[in-house]
User: Which sequence fits this backbone?
């Protein structure tokens, strides 16, 4: 497998921009966001994390599903003629450059949610046009807990993955045919690896285990949660419920949260309008309210407990994948300072 | 790349052909899809639900109350409680709405066929159960005994009065009705008490299949009363949650790891007995 | 569902003001891009800030801005209520009493003397309150000033016969959706987590912490929020001042103690 020198990456992106849209981490207000770039230099691969995860690219915060007319006739149309949703950039493929391992794990969770059972055309149309180029993290941030979740490395879900092996070199792992095609489309930017670089890679991966792995693991967590729901130790949920502000931030910054609400919007004429979906959060008070006002999760305690169970137990039972990838965004964003890894440790009694 | 995926979010227009007032708060709505072929090919199971959209007001899930043995139309019985139901109550015959579905699993007809059945309905819970009851009556020889227990808060809230009467008159149906209370000014000569008080009044052997639907609060009382009398895998409950998308995407109807819209709305008691937050 | 207009008729609208700066009415005038479309479907029966020919009610909808601060205003708002099928409290003053309700926490007599010397007897000053201390309000359009898009949304809803639906969550939701950096986590006193959404986080959008002008949302966890602020070494005085800024007379804030 090949290598790429750090200084060649912006040039590669520039070249790619001729054929693809490129979305990458760029600085904003001393943080980072995934955003479309127009020059290779803009992509900042040394970013720690982004405010919102790359899921917004496939599953935007707000998305029109249906447009309707209700004049003489009642007519519903998908936001796109052929039954697929709007493609703002036409058929052009886009490259998401610089996705961390944890976020690639998260995209695999979302793929399961949106592409199985009733395939979601809106998600799929964007996902099918995407190429993912991952990049490794060299150090975990204090708020990261990919070590607990086992998500600091990733084996699939990317087209290329750039594993940084020293200050100015990345080892390139190919994850798909599309990725292989990228390598052959831009041969000038890559060079062959040597025995020496492979040695470096092995060393980096070994060091990584030491840096990232956590003494706490998720083994046995679902069983423990089964017991903790109402048990005496369940006071942990009461404590969290009192602390939680119910602002929904943790869900909104979460790379695996997929809940949404559906709302209609009409024109002043009342004759035309649209149905859109908007990100929602199970921590908001009326999330589980049914017609007539009955709330199945009436307290903040019941809501935060549900979220944590969903991430650590329910999602695993449903799809065989954990609903949390340890990216730490909720830890960073929670104004009440609630930290998922603290909750995990508490449940595990550590 | 053309992604040819059927769009499960796209409603299909249907025309309201008949509205019958049931009580002060509930109306029965009959609909037909505009295209004749669409209506003819439309099939569903008792216990499934549809998403009904009134453009501008939004979309809401409703149990189908008609039986799939009637191919010419489908029906909802709706209580006026919120935005979409309010708009639906103001709908006139001939007007159109959008329909998506059917969604959900429906009642387990395979588990019901050939068996003796007890149906327990509280209030609006009769709405999806009416679909099942009429289905059974239309295919009477495929099913065993049919006992129906139905309770409402007060006499004036009883739904489908004509049908109740017809069921009562049939020899192959045992129907018991009760009301929680009889407020002044309402006439009632039948049972008074919550629906659970009817359970000891019917004879059942252990192999009866129970199908239950009612307000959230009702289930635990009914289950307590049935405890030990019937097999847990033969007690079926239709649960209500906030099904926004109907297709297991939006997360609103989750009960623990289950989605009411995909795995339900009908669950066996065995399946949800230990499910956190189910009952 | 509420039917305010017949099939062909226009929605009869009044836009009126009590004690305030007039800024929310100005926001209606600032709806320039849709103003012409609006007057196609509504009839501005009474809008003294914008037009010279005005008629009294009845109205389908009255938007009333400003707080109630005098006996005369109590009578006025009661009359408006009688003449309107649907009453919208327009802006934070009409919803809660606004900035001026800070005076409810002091001695009115003293304030009168201070402002008017000894001769303030002609000033008929009551505590500054929102409209709902005197009449029923059908919709609370919060904000100082209100958000223009909410005005259009409410009118559109009413035009199709739908009761407008208020939001039941905090500014944080809109702030996160727009991917702004969290100012509270930077140690700034941002009222986002307890303040009702609807402004699209317009202050955090320009890196200014939320001042809470839309008032508390119904499930705001004030206790935990104040604890968090104190942990960030924000002084009790600063915290109280922030709560007293725009919606001090909101029922949840009125008796708030920060210790």
Assistant:
């Amino acid at each position: 497998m090949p290598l790429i020198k750090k200084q060649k990456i912006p040039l590669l992106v520039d070249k790619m921009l001729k054929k693809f849209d490129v979305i990458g981490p760029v600085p904003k207000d001393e943080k980072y966001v995934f955003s479309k770039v127009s020059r290779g230099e803009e992509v900042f691969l040394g970013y720690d994390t982004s405010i919102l995860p790359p899921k917004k690219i496939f599953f935007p915060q707000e998305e029109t599903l249906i447009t309707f007319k209700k004049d003489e006739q009642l007519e519903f149309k998908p936001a796109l003629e052929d039954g697929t949703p709007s493609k703002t950039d036409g058929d052009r493929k886009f490259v998401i450059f610089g996705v961390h391992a944890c976020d690639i794990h998260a995209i695999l969770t979302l793929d399961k949610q949106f592409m199985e059972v009733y395939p979601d055309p809106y998600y799929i149309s964007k996902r099918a046009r995407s190429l993912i180029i991952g990049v490794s993290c060299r150090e975990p941030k204090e708020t990261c807990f990919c070590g607990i979740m086992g998500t600091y490395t990733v084996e699939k879900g990317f087209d290329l993955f750039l594993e940084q092996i020293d200050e100015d070199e990345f080892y390139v792992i190919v994850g798909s045919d599309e990725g292989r095609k990228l390598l052959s489309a831009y041969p000038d930017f890559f060079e062959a690896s040597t025995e020496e670089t492979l040695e470096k890679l092995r060393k980096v991966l070994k060091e990584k285990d030491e840096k990232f792995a956590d003494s706490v693991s998720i083994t046995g967590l679902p069983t423990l949660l089964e017991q903790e729901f109402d048990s005496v130790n369940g006071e942990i949920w009461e404590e969290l419920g009192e602390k939680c502000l119910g602002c929904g931030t943790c869900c909104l910054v979460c790379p695996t949260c997929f809940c949404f609400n559906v709302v209609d919007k009409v024109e002043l004429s009342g004759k035309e309008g649209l149905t859109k979906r908007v990100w929602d959060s199970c921590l908001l008070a009326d999330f589980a309210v049914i017609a007539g006002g009955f709330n199945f999760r009436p307290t903040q305690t019941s809501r935060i407990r549900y979220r944590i169970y969903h991430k650590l137990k329910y999602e695993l039972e449903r799809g065989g994948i954990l609903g949390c990838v340890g990216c730490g965004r909720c830890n960073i964003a929670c104004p009440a300072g609630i930290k998922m890894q603290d909750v995990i440790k508490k449940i595990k009694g550590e | 790349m053309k992604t040819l995926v059927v769009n499960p979010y796209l409603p299909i227009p249907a025309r309201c052909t008949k509205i019958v007032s049931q009580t002060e708060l509930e109306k029965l709505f009959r609909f037909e899809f505009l295209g004749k072929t669409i209506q003819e090919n439309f099939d569903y199971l008792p216990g499934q639900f549809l998403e009904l959209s009134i453009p501008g007001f939004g979309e809401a899930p409703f149990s189908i109350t008609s039986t799939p043995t009637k191919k010419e139309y489908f029906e909802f019985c709706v209580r006026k409680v919120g935005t979409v139901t309010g708009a639906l109550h103001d709908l006139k015959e001939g007007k159109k709405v959008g329909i998506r579905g059917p969604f959900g699993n429906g009642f387990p007809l395979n588990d019901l066929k050939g068996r003796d059945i007890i149906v327990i309905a509280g209030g609006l819970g009769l709405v999806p159960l009416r679909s099942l009851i009429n289905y059974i009556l239309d295919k009477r020889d495929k099913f065993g005994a049919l006992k129906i227990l139905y309770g409402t808060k007060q006499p004036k809230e009883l739904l489908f009065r004509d049908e109740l009467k017809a069921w009562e008159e049939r020899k192959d149906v045992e129907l018991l009705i009760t009301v929680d209370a009889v407020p002044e000014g309402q006439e009632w000569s039948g049972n008074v008490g919550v629906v659970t008080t009817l359970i000891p009044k019917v004879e059942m052997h252990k192999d009866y299949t129970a199908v239950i639907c009612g307000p959230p609060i009702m289930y635990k009382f009914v289950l307590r009363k049935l405890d030990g009398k019937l097999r847990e895998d033969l007690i079926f409950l239709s649960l209500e949650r906030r099904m926004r998308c109907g297709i297991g995407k939006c997360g609103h109807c989750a009960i623990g790891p289950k989605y009411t819209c995909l795995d339900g709305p009908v669950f066996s008691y065995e399946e949800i007995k230990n499910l956190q937050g189910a009952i | 569902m509420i039917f305010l207009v017949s099939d062909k008729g226009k929605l009869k609208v009044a836009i009126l003001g009590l004690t305030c700066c007039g800024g929310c009415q100005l926001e209606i005038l600032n709806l320039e891009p849709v103003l012409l479309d609006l007057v196609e479907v509504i009839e501005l029966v009474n809008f003294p800030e914008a037009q010279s020919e005005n008629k009294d009610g009845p109205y389908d909808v009255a938007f009333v801005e400003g707080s109630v601060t005098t006996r005369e205003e109590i009578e006025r708002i009661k009359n408006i209520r009688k003449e309107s099928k649907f009453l919208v409290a327009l802006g934070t003053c009409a919803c809660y009493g606004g900035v001026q309700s800070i005076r409810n926490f002091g001695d009115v007599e003293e304030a009168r003397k201070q402002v008017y010397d000894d001769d303030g007897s002609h000033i008929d000053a009551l505590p500054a309150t929102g409209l709902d201390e005197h009449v029923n309000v059908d919709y609370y359009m919060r904000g100082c000033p209100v958000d223009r898009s909410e005005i259009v949304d409410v009118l559109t809803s009413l035009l199709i016969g739908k009761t407008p639906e208020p939001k039941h969550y905090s500014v944080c939701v809109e702030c996160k959706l727009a991917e702004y950096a969290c100012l509270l986590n930077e140690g700034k006193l941002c009222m986002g987590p307890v303040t009702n959404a609807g402004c699209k986080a317009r202050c955090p959008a320009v890196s200014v912490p939320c001042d809470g002008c839309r008032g508390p949302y119904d499930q705001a966890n004030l206790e935990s929020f104040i604890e968090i602020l104190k942990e960030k070494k924000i002084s009790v005085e600063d915290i109280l001042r922030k709560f007293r800024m725009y919606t001090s007379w909101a029922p949840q804030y009125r008796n708030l103690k920060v210790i």
Observations:
- The radius of gyration of chain B is 19 Å.
